[in-house]
Amino acid sequence: MSVRPSYALAIHGGAGVKPGRDYSRVEAHLERLISEGEAMLCAGESALDTVETMVANLEGSGLYVAGRGSAPSRSGRHELDAALMDGARQAAGAVANISAVKHPIKAARHVLEHSPYVLFAGEGANQVARAAGLEQVEDPEDWYTLPVGVLQTETEEAELQHGTVGAVALDRNGNLASATSTGGLFGKASGRIGDTPLIGAGTWASDRVAVSCTGLGEFFILAGTAKDVDARMRYGGETLEHAASASLDDIARLGGDGGLIAIDTEGNMALPFNSDGMKRAWVREGRSPGFAIYS
Ligand code: ASP
What we know:
The protein is α+β, with helices and mostly antiparallel strands. The chain is built from eight helices and twelve strands. Helix 3 (104-114) links the parallel strand 3 and strand 4 (119-121). Helix 1 runs antiparallel to helix 2 (47-61) and helix 7 (225-236) crosses helix 8. 56% of the residues are buried.
């Protein structure tokens, strides 16, 4: 008989993986980070604080297409998206097209805690982040860096490269949370917003399941993927594993690919992807952490 774990955590560094590239630095980072996240949950910290910390670290590493590893849009500006959701309160905060801050996920958390609104975009999002005193990007040339697995020659070619980071967690109080942050697509048109900051598309958490998605965002928006996992469980009685892979099958039917990470209140986890790989790590109480990029 399997025992319900009192905490569980999964993180991802995006499904934009190119076979044959050297991801050893990513593997080492994911392995280290998942242990830090486990220590937080083990110590009784909340799922929400844990997913925010995980994503802020992924953003700041410069290893992934999010935060520091993002590329400018065709306007020459970095336009980033992030969201997080607290399943216990069914409350969310999100920012889109933000360019002023080093950690968009912290701006999203500020929106969640201190605003009657859910989503701020563009200059409004920058103003919220500045007023909150969040760390600014003073010199974009100095802050932004090429992420692991992306070649300099690929950065100008529209939509050749994409990536995202995310985390989902179950804490010792039985609460769920999810967080997602992205630089979106390399060479994207200015003003393009993906699925990441759209609650129910790329990010979702309830008192049933927490979900963070990665892949070409337009497909995830059209399929409403993150909330679809919840709806399949709620109305269809599907298991987490079945719901997660069926939602991803819908993405494939639309012609897209990518992946998602999801955790339910029983501590079950699903980390399906239909792309070449998905950078990911996971842990639950009583088990050793795992990490993988390909199958
Ligand atoms: N979903 C992200 C976006 O389209 C990209 C990714 O996950 O790779 O903005």
